Give the backbone structure.
Amino acid sequence: MVLQGIAKGLYHRKLTIISLIILGVIMLSGALAPVLAPNDPTLISLENKFLSPSIQFPFGTDHLGRCILSRLMYGAITSLGSALVVMSVTITISIIMGTLSGYMGGRVDAFLMRLCDMILAFPNLVLTLVIVGMLGPSLINVIIAMVVVQWVWYARIIRGMVLSLKERSFVLSAKVTGTPDWLIIVRHILPNIIPHIVVLATLNLGMVILHISGLSFLGLGVQPPTPEWGAMLNDAKQFLRSDPRLIMFPGTMILLVVISFNLLGDALRDAIEFRES
Amino acid sequence: MNSAKVEKEIMNKQVVLNLKNFQAHLPTKRGVVRAVNGINLQITQGKVLGLVGESGCGKSITCLSLLGLTKEKGWVIVGKAQMQGKNLLALDSEEIRRIRGKDIAIIMQNPMAAFNPLTTIGQHFLETIRSHLSVSEKASREMATKYLGHVGLPQPDKLMKQYPFQFSGGMLQRVMIAIALAMEPKVLIADEPTTSLDVTIQRQILGQLARLKEKARTGMLLVSHDLGVIAQMADEVAVMYCGYIVERAPVEQLFNNPLHPYTRALLASKPQMQKKPLQAIGGQAPSLLNLDVGCPFLERCNEKNRRCSHYKQKLIQYDHKHWVGCAKYSAEQRMLNHGLA
Amino acid sequence: MERFIVNRIISLVPVLLGISLLTFILIQLVPVDPAEVYLRLSQIPPTDEAVAVTRAELGLDKPLYQQYFDWLRKVVQLDFGLSFVTKEPVMEELLYYFPATLKLTAASLVIVLLISIPLGVFSALYKDTAFDQMCRIFAFIGASMPSFWLGFVLVYILSLKLDLLPVYGRGTLAHLVLPATTLALGSAAVYTRLLRTSMLENLNQNFVLYAKARGLKERLIVVRYVLKNALIPVVIAFGMTLGHMLAGSVIVENVFAWPGVGRYIVSSIFNRDYPVIQAYVLFMAVNFVLLNLIVDIICGLLDPRIRLGGDR
Ligand SMILES: Nc1ncnc2c1ncn2[C@@H]1O[C@H](COP(=O)(O)OP(=O)(O)OP(=O)(O)O)[C@@H](O)[C@H]1O
Ligand SMILES: [Mg+2]
């Protein structure tokens, strides 16, 4: 009973706050890494390899003697930063495409929707993987591939929202009074869709992070020696037996961040649904 | 034993279902909905009790909760629902299951949503029969087709193999009635059984229900908006308002001499042959979430007096079989009236 | 039912054409000249002359639409050309690696069902109990877990520390357990959550109430009324997930050195073996489409409204 009560109470408010704090700390430590990081994350010194935690190396060192904490901090910029880039580019493109498609209708709409159908016919990780394969392994190509694969989902959803908004009385009356289309879009349509898209994006950020770090883990994304959590796991996998610490740190970071984004997305969704009901 | 006592004995034997101080409160996010607030009703063998009242007054909740059927968890149902000396509300889940559908059958209000979209009409029928009787598949199939025919559905064999989405609301309603009739229940609860039917079929169905009450001596609780149906079918009528029974009387008495202001308003809103203008009941019923002390009809009543604002709903016996819950008819008020006269 | 299936199959034609078109476009993304890559891999110096010959050989000198139709004609005959690296037919190589991937995916599918159906059903039936809370926490963490990390954690705990299961290699059922579980966990979490929600929705339906009112037994109601209806959205979503699992096997195969198409494709990407990459994406997309077809047929079997084309 007590456990239940605690779990329930936590589920709503506190967990959201905790996840916000976790995300805040990680992002800050990433952003301030050049100032705060105790060591150069790429400095190789073989005499220092596999060190246990010490004052100089708070989390110890990896197989090339690099400071794990510093690599984790710099890795936060790469992992979170690239996810945020993917998300914001995706959303910008999909808002433009979705609004265009839904608002204009006709040929533009038909063309864009066929394009979406085509992309959606592929399992999305496969398509991402193959685009990266064609363009060649690198972080920027991973970002491009993720955007190409993801925007269709949002564009579809946005188009649907725009279609239904178009029939609502406030848009119709704006039209009747001769408001130009761009103004209707800016003033009436975008404000109504953006909150929903932010919720969706937050809910999906976790997945984006998993994909980016997954591709880096395969060696297809961030290239060495740039620190990134997925790539760190890739480096560490051969030392699973001898030094499991190397696996624990980056994996825990990914898990924490993804859980936090998912919790945050859930909370935002509940909030927006509540506001609407 | 004097004759009055004998009469009472007989009466008691004939009562098949007796609701005593029956309450149903539904906790929701916004507060507790007090849907049914301590009502007393008797359903008698071979008789029809009509239950009328405007939308949302708690009729369906009464029907469902007396069988212990709660849509969501947490509904608080108190009081007694007595049948053959047993309180239905105190039975364990297997005991009440045996009663549901067999001794007390129910015809639900919204036929379109009441059927499992994934199984055939025949399945629905067979499941019900075989949950209560140990008969062969073949026998129950024959039984099903027979009763589907009784309610006037053509080609019952074919219908058995069809799915609910291939039926109209009226057809599904008749299937429900057929399922209920097949079990020859002691009590039939019919929640708006004729709303989705056209007039000819309505007459046919009412005929079926009447036959059931004659043949199987089934006692019936008939919920309806349609006062015409009530006038035709019911032996006794109870008027419900905000989860209270505000008036109860044999059918002629209620229609000829309605006592409660709400009943009067309800009857005035019923279309009649003479071209009198229809009277809508002014105002809105108070929310069941925040029922205050005092008569719930107060706001809309045009016969109110100062006593009404702290009147506690209870039925007063006005006549041999005529009960009413209104401050106007309370003993002191009547005394006052007589005194003045 | 036959008509429903036939219609579904006919509707696949434009989808497959779209897939082939996009696949063909993808190869145009390659920033370098495939002919040059081909020569390099064959250790022939890419002189202008040699490149021109190879371009003609690979048909790269023709106009694009011509190239597309030539390619499509071959693809329909399952001819994807030769691997740049091994010089073997690509299709044969894919089919050589595919059974391992299929086995892995099938095993994790079984695990997904074994986990998510009981958890989803019972957490809905016992909503808000401690068991339900635990299921929800499991669903939440499971869906956030990076599979490439989970794999290592499982190996570390179950194989290295407890010595219960073998780490790498394959052949026996024991070898399958760790990779399949790793691949399954995320989907199992998602489906536990989805099934729970769907069950709860159906538990509140009027038809459940009417079934109770007719005195049906609790278990019959749960199975035939609630679960059966609750499974429909779950099955529909499953088509998607199967695709993700096939794709997700790329990561798991690389964690466990599982010799399936996932490992093959990653090494092909590093080798810039474009015919293989192209064949892989087409192969996976066609699998995805066929899996979705199967899922649709299952839905049709479950739901007469789909099968008989009712829309009321
Ligand atoms: N599942 C529920 N949860 C909470 N409140 C409910 C629920 N179902 C009904 N109510 C409330 O209980 C009250 C009584 O509802 P009920 O369905 O019994 O009305 P009714 O008299 O049958 O009306 P109608 O003539 O429209 O069928 C209503 O105010 C309704 O809002
Ligand atoms: Mg009702």
